[in-house]
Amino acid sequence: MKDLLEERPGFGCPRVHLAVQSAGLGQNHKRTEWIYYGNGLQLKKRKPKSIATKEGLTHC
Residue 7 and residue 29: Cα distance in Å, rounded? Predict the structure, then answer.
């Protein structure tokens, strides 16, 4: 799993799970999430987009 994430750092847990399944290492999605988050492999959270309004900028 770590090799896949080094190769594709933008993959989140659902895409990693699909890649693991397609590689023939079938396991439950909950198990994949447990390993993914347990090893500190979370993606960084995105900033909310700013929207221009008459009063000024606000977040979505």
Answer: 21
pLDDT of residue 44: 66
What does the domain layout of the chain look like in residue ranges? Answer: 2-43
How many Å from the N-terminal Cα to the C-terminal Cα in the chain?
A: 34
Residue 46 β-bridge partners: none
CA distance 38 to 59: 31
**CB of 32 closer than 8 Å to CB of 13:** yes
pTM to 2 decimals? 0.56
Contacts with 42 (C-beta within 8 Å, 6 or more apart), sequence order: 36
